[in-house]
Each structure stands twice: as C-alpha cells, then as structure tokens.
C-alpha cells in the first residue's frame, strides 16, 4: 500500500468532501459556465468552497479541476490554459486546507467515447498525462480519477496518473442494469476492482450515479474482490428537476445514517457527490463521532 494511503486508512474512516459544482453555482457560477475556469477568474469563490469543506470536517478535499483536460477544454477554446487551471486548482485547495486536510486532485473523464472512435487512446493518454503532471507539479498529495464510466478510459487515466509517483484513487460510476450495479459499459464491481488493482490503483472507488443505499452492495462486492482501500462518494438520493436545477431528495442526516453500514462493509474513504454539500460532511462527522459534537 502507498505510505500516504496507509497512514490515512490506519486511522479509521476518512471523511472526504462533497460536490463542488452546486456550491460554485450557489456563488454565481452559471449553468453553462465551465467551473474549472473559475480557478483563474474567481479563485476567492473556489477557495470559499474548499474552506467550507475543511470547516465541515473533510480530512481530504479535492480540487476544482474535474474537467481541466485538453479534450474537454478544446471545445471551450481554453486548451492553452490546461496547465494554469490545474495548478491554480491545487494551490487554491492547498491554501484553504492550511494543513488541516490533504489535497487529492480531481481528474474527470474526457467526455469522449473511445469505443465509438470519437477519440483515440493516444490522444486520451496525452491529455491525462498533461493534466496529471500539472496537478502533481503543483503539489497535490494524491490524484483522484473519478466519475469514470468506461474502464478502458479509467485505465488510461490511471496509467498517466501513476507516472507522477503519487498515490492514485480510481472511482467509477455504477448506475446501469436492473440492480444499478454495472458501469455504463457493463462492468461489474468485481471486474472493476480486479482490473484496477491489477493496473496499479492504490484505492478503488465508486461515485455518483445513485444514492447512498445503492452503494452498500457495490462496497460489499468491491471488498470481496480486493484488499485495496475503498473510496465512496454517493449522490444525495435521486434528483428532481426544479426550475432547471437538479434537487436531490436525501437530507444530510439520512445520508449520514447510511454511513456506518458502508464502514462495516469495508469502506475507507467516504464523501458525497451530486447534491451533497458541507452540511452532509458535517452530518457524517456527527454520526461517526457523536461525543465530539455534543
Ligand atoms: Zn455526481
């Protein structure tokens, strides 16, 4: 196990952060705006989000760099600023953490499909290498390849991330099939765990796609397939569209009440994805350590 990851998991469940997009929207980000560009134009507001998570008790915070790869950014005519946006993303989270939380830098999917030939493996590899290097060079503690729907793309991103020497978390979306226990491409938790472990991931995970109840079977099946630490970031239940915005139906308390079960099933890192905010992170802390919050 990577020493940094070992250090974390030996202390018990690690609380990560929640969603960033909705928090940035609450601070003025428009629905069609590219959130990562705010690292350059509104670093103060991005920093507020990071700080809100640290204050809520996140021991690990991510970075506002989910979409900052050249494939996604090419469409935004911002590809020349890949390095800068990633570097600032790490710096903003680092400054907000002030040593109280580790900074795991976010790498999201390209938005293109390998299978249909929309993008080549070679182009994807270059894009992930560029982003991973920028994040590592700026001082990230670890890299998180997240919200992946295609195991082939996840493996390319993992390989690029591993080249930096940092520990790497790879987290996929399980939201397909009758039981919502497969990725978009049909891979099971067992296959994902075995493939990513074999490919050198330090932590395997699941995020987004469904509410916290659906994460229990995925966690159990991950644990049966691998001894690697498990990272989970469920959504806050199911979305309903209200005034053009997705509203999620789980309360922070409902979400937090499901966390002990995930811990029992072998989870090591827990936070939230869509619909979760700092109040969810604080609720997890209260649920796990009630005496500390009286
Ligand atoms: Zn999500």
Describe this structure in words.
With 294 residues, the protein is an alpha/beta fold. It contains 13 helices and ten strands. Strands 1-10-7-6-5-4-3-2 form an eight-stranded parallel sheet. The protein has a two-stranded antiparallel sheet with strand order 8-9. Strand 6, helix 10 and strand 7 form a beta-alpha-beta unit. It is globular, with a radius of gyration of 17 Å. The relative contact order is 0.13. The mean pLDDT is 95. Residues 208, 235, 273-274 line the site of zinc ion.
Structure characteristics:
eight-stranded parallel sheet, globular, 294 residues, two-stranded antiparallel ribbon, alpha/beta, binds zinc ion
pLDDT averaged over residues:
95
The biggest beta sheet reads: 8 strands, parallel
Bound ligand species: zinc ion
Could you say which overall geometry the principal axes of the C-alpha atoms support?
A: globular
Main-sheet strand order equals 1-10-7-6-5-4-3-2
- In DSSP terms (H or I, runs of 4 or more residues), the helix count works out at 13
The residue fraction in helices comes out at 40-55%
How big a fraction of the residues is strand?
15-25%
Q: What is the oligomeric state here?
A: single chain
DSSP E strands, number: 10
The chain-level structural class is: alpha/beta
Regions with little confidence, pLDDT below 50 for 5+ residues = none
Rg over CA atoms, rounded to whole Å, is 17 Å
Q: Sketch the topology as an H/E string, one letter per element.
A: HEHHHEHHEHEHEHEHEEEHHEH
Distance between the termini: 36 Å
């Amino acid at each position: 196990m990577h020493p940094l990851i070992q250090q974390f998991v030996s202390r018990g469940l690690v609380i990560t952060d929640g969603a960033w997009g909705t928090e940035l929207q609450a601070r003025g980000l428009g629905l069609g705006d590219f959130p990562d560009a705010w690292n350059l134009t509104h670093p103060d507001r991005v920093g507020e989000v990071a700080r809100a998570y640290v204050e809520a008790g996140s021991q690990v915070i991510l970075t506002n760099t989910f979409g900052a790869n050249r494939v996604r950014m090419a469409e935004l005519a911002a590809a020349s600023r890949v390095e800068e946006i990633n570097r600032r993303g790490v710096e903003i989270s680092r400054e907000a953490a002030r040593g109280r939380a580790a900074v795991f830098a976010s790498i999201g999917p390209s938005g293109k499909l390998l299978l249909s030939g929309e993008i080549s493996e070679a182009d994807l590899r270059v894009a992930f290498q560029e982003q991973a290097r920028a994040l590592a060079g700026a001082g990230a503690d670890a890299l998180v390849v997240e919200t992946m729907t295609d195991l082939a793309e996840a493996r390319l991103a993992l390989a690029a991330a591993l080249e930096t020497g940092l520990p790497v978390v790879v987290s996929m979306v399980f939201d397909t099939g009758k039981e919502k226990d497969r990725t978009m491409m049909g891979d099971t938790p067992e296959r994902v765990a075995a493939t990513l472990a074999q490919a050198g991931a330090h932590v395997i995970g699941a995020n987004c796609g469904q509410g916290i109840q659906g994460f229990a079977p995925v966690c159990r099946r991950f644990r049966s397939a691998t001894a690697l630490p498990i990272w989970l970031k469920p959504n806050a239940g199911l979305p309903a569209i209200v005034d053009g915005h997705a509203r999620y139906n789980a309360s922070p308390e409902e979400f937090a009440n499901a966390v002990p079960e995930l811990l029992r099933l072998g989870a090591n890192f827990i936070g939230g994805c869509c619909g979760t905010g700092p109040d969810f992170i604080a609720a997890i802390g209260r649920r796990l350590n009630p005496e500390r919050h009286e």
